[in-house]
Specification:
Elements: E1 18-26, E2 31-40, E3 43-47, E4 59-62, E5 67-70, E6 75-79, E7 85-89, H1 93-117, H2 133-179, H3 185-259, E8 303-307, H4 311-314, H5 334-340, H6 371-375, E9 393-397, H7 398-403, H8 410-416, H9 421-434, E10 445-447, E11 454-459, E12 465-474, E13 477-485, E14 489-501, E15 505-518, E16 524-527, E17 531-535, E18 543-554, E19 560-565, E20 578-584, E21 590-597, E22 601-615, E23 621-627, E24 631-635, H10 651-656, H11 672-678, H12 682-711, H13 714-723, H14 726-730, E25 744-748, E26 755-759, H15 763-769
Parallel strand pairs: 8-23, 9-10
Antiparallel strand pairs: 1-2, 1-7, 2-3, 3-4, 5-6, 6-7, 11-12, 12-13, 13-14, 14-15, 15-16, 15-17, 16-18, 17-18, 18-19, 19-20, 20-21, 21-22, 22-23, 22-24, 25-26
GO cellular component, one term: plasma membrane
GO molecular function, one term: sterol binding
Family: Belongs to the OSBP family.
């Protein structure tokens, strides 16, 4: 079904409904985007597509108060004074002129109607025109009422002027009367005063009667107008509720349709059911052509998936689309394929008592704090340099949040048992996505670690792994993380956070690399994190979104998995918080498709055949993958009971700050402000947080002094000692940070070509011996 062409009258009239495609500039994606515009009843509205006209309007400008300006041959601007501004571009100069003419005519009509109805303040209430005699009688009744009220106002104005005039005259007569002596003139003056008093009383009575008439008419019609206004409000509320319900039902039906069982297809079948919601040459409309596998961003590399031919389910030992027989071609789950191929027997279990971890922390207190009073002076600044009270925090440090990435360590355990690198890549990619599942409700900011702060997570008995984090730099803040498992994998990462507060939202951009190395195959994987955005910072309920792209690379084999995190949109036809990915080999041939959501689950499908499909939106060609039935590879663990009162912590997060014996003096569990916050003593925690930050600044100044002295000659050192002021020393940008990490060292990784801090050893040995003498006093 082709899109209807916009009307192109030579000279549009003021009563026309004018529609058509225009390109609109948007700051979110930095460019012009094609949008469907509708001009009707003095309102200019736009939609993402024609299909949205029935349920979702993206924006509306009332032309009665708008300014229309031409920029060049194809561009023009429509603005209503600053609150809304549309920068638009037509396909040609002729088309632009048609739009300008239609907009000017519609604006003139809107201004005229606004003046006639004297209702310029209600620019959002649009009453449908009434046809026939009803419209004429309705308008005449309104005009008659307005004329009556206007005449009464004029009467009130006249009476007011007369009251002022006669009142002044009466006052003068009374003054003259007081000055007269008793005699012949007394009677004349009394008569004048009596006449003027009578005139004043008559005028006052007329004023009172006019006011009474005006109030009577106003009250009578006010009740009717209030009733009509309330009716319009109720209808608007019901309409909004209906639209919201329809949007939810539409989303539910879309998800149900995608998950429904379909008949065995082929690419030539016109009734082909496509998992991503994009239909072939069937009976669906072109509205679905925009619904690519990756989301509404219309990525040119988008793809769609279809169930593979049943023959691939029966064949074994074949080599279809470059997939070797050792990977299997039946519809067997990942666990069966990987674990069955690993004939090694598991080591005997050690019957040692496992420590019982806590399952609750004190409930979060309900403290009120004016966020805007703190954040209004911080717009555009680096978040790590903004002094924040603990009211915005959660009782965990950034080091502990990094350790939470290991909540789904089982994925790496399974990956370590894989004999095939492409299967292993799927597990690593699922582990990459799983690390974001704990953030969906976690709107609290973790504590910024102090320089030299550490955090250990020893789960060698329960889960077979140990983890260590250390804050290796303060400006910029950087944390190094190392974890190793008895199951044959090592995870290491160094993360530096760059964050900006933009007024309405907060963007957190993790910089740095994450690496995973498997001992048995010597495969080394690396990837980076996506951007985290916290919305509704000032007004509304806070919510978290993850968006961006990740490339997971196997540096040994050249395999690659490209993951895309689609930005969340309430009215999107796609699944919220969607993640999609394709696993390819070193030659770029696709072998697996991954799909799911970062807050719930991930599935994988093996690709049996691929081909170029029809052109999608705006002529972009998409790849069609025939896949086996999808299998679940990861699912989020349910939150513990009462998590909403415990900062939405997962079961693992509840145990991270639990006190433990034998940890280093620099461990985050020993941090006093964090402990006070967890116990609900926020005022004391704020005071302790300020003390620790000041102590860290003092330590930094001393370290910079020592660094300058060590690098200078004795004469230069004496001059510096005598001439350096406290403000110069405290300037954090004046000197590079002279700090050597205690448990990590910086190396150049030859496989990935990156420079990062890696664990140099010694921590767990020091813990066994209790030798913490080298640890700095940071708390």
């Amino acid at each position: 079904m082709s899109e209807p062409k916009p009307p192109t009258p030579t000279t549009p009239t003021a009563g026309d409904t004018y529609k058509g495609w225009l390109f609109k500039w948007t700051n979110y994606i930095k460019g012009y985007q094609r949008r469907w515009f509708v001009l009707s009843n003095g309102l200019l509205s736009y939609y993402r597509s024609q299909a949205e006209m029935g349920h979702t309007c993206r924006g509306t400008i009332n032309l009665a108060t708008a300014n229309i300006a031409v920029e060049d041959s194809c561009n023009f601007v429509v603005s209503n004074g600053g609150a809304q501004t549309y920068h638009l571009k037509a396909s040609s100069e002729v088309e632009r002129q048609r739009w300008i003419t239609a907009l000017e005519l519609a604006k003139a009509k809107a201004v005229r109607m606004q003046d006639e109805s004297d209702d310029s303040g209600d620019e959002f209430c649009v009453v449908a025109p009434v046809s026939g005699q009803g419209a004429g009688s309705h308008n005449s009744e309104i005009q008659s009422t307005l004329r009556t009220l206007s005449s009464k106002v004029e009467d009130l104005t006249t009476c007011n002027d007369l009251i002022v005039k006669h009142g002044s005259a009466l006052q003068r007569s009374l003054s003259e009367l007081e000055a007269l002596r008793v005699g012949a003139e007394m009677g004349e003056k009394i008569r004048q005063v009596t006449e003027r008093a009578t005139l004043f009383r008559i005028t006052s009575n007329a004023m009172i009667n006019a006011c009474r008439d005006f109030l009577s008419i106003a009250q009578m019609h006010s009740k009717r107008w209030q009733k009509a206004l309330q009716t319009e409000r109720d209808q608007r509320i019901r309409l909004e509720e209906t639209l919201e319900q329809l949007a939810k039902q539409h989303n539910h039906l879309e998800r149900a349709f995608r998950g429904a069982t379909v008949l065995p297809p082929s690419l030539s079948n016109p009734n082909l059911s496509i998992k991503s919601g994009v239909s072939g040459k069937g009976d669906a409309s072109d509205e679905d052509d925009d619904n690519e596998f990756f989301d509404a961003m219309e990525d040119p590399t988008g793809f769609i998936t279809v169930p593979a031919d049943p023959k691939y389910h029966r064949r074994s030992g074949s080599n279809v689309s470059g997939i070797s027989s050792e990977m299997g071609t039946d519809d067997t789950s990942f666990d069966e394929l990987s674990l069955a191929s690993n004939s090694e027997s598991l080591p005997p279990l050690e019957l040692e008592p496992v420590r019982q971890r806590r399952t609750r922390i004190p409930d979060k207190p309900n403290y009120y704090l004016n966020l805007w009073s703190i954040m209004k002076n911080c717009i555009g600044k680096e978040l790590s340099k903004i002094p924040m009270p603990v009211n915005f925090n959660e009782p965990l440090s950034m080091l502990q949040r990094l350790s939470e990435d290991l909540e789904y360590y089982e994925l790496l355990d399974k990956a370590a048992k894989c004999h095939n690198s492409l299967e292993q890549m799927c597990y690593v990619a699922a582990f990459t996505v799983s690390s974001y599942s704990t953030t969906v409700h976690r709107t609290g900011k973790p504590f910024n670690p102090l320089l030299g702060e550490t955090f250990e997570l020893d789960r060698i008995r329960e889960s077979g792994y140990r983890s260590l984090c250390e804050q290796v730099s303060h400006h910029p803040p950087a944390a190094a993380h190392h974890a190793f498992s008895e199951k044959g994998w090592t995870l290491r990462q160094e993360i530096t956070l760059a964050s900006k507060f933009r007024g309405k939202y907060l963007s957190i951009m993790p910089l740095g690399s994450i690496q995973c190395i498997f001992d048995k195959s010597n495969n080394q994987y690396s990837w980076k994190k996506v951007t985290t955005t916290v919305h509704n910072i000032i007004v509304g309920k806070l919510w978290i979104d993850q968006s961006g792209e990740i490339d997971v690379v196997n540096h040994k084999t050249g395999d690659r998995c490209h993951l895309k995190f689609a930005p969340y949109s309430y009215f999107s036809r796609d699944v919220p918080r969607k993640v999609t990915g394709v696993v390819t080999d070193k030659d770029g041939k696709a072998h697996y498709v991954l799909s799911g959501t970062w807050d719930e689950k991930m599935e994988f499908s093996r690709i049996m055949q691929s081909s170029k499909g029809e052109n999608g939106t705006e002529g972009k060609q998409r790849t069609v993958y025939q896949t086996l039935k999808p299998k679940e590879i990861w699912r989020k663990n349910p939150l513990p009971d009462g998590a909403e009162n415990m900062y939405y912590f997962s079961s693992l997060a509840l145990t991270l700050n639990e006190p433990e014996e034998g940890v280093a003096p620099t461990d985050s569990r020993r941090r006093p402000d964090q402990r006070l916050m967890e116990e609900g003593r926020w005022d004391e925690a704020n005071a302790e947080k300020q003390r620790l930050e000041e102590k860290q600044r003092s330590t930094r100044r001393e370290r910079e002094k020592d660094a300058v002295k060590a690098a200078a000659t004795p004469e230069e050192a004496d001059a510096h000692e005598a001439g350096t002021t406290a403000s110069e020393v405290s300037d954090e940008s004046a000197h590079p940070e002279n700090y050597q990490a205690l448990w990590f060292e910086k190396i150049n990784d030859s496989a990935s070509g990156e420079t990062l801090h890696v664990y140099k050893g010694g921590y767990w040995e020091a813990k066994e011996q209790g030798g913490w003498e080298m640890c700095p006093d940071i708390f």
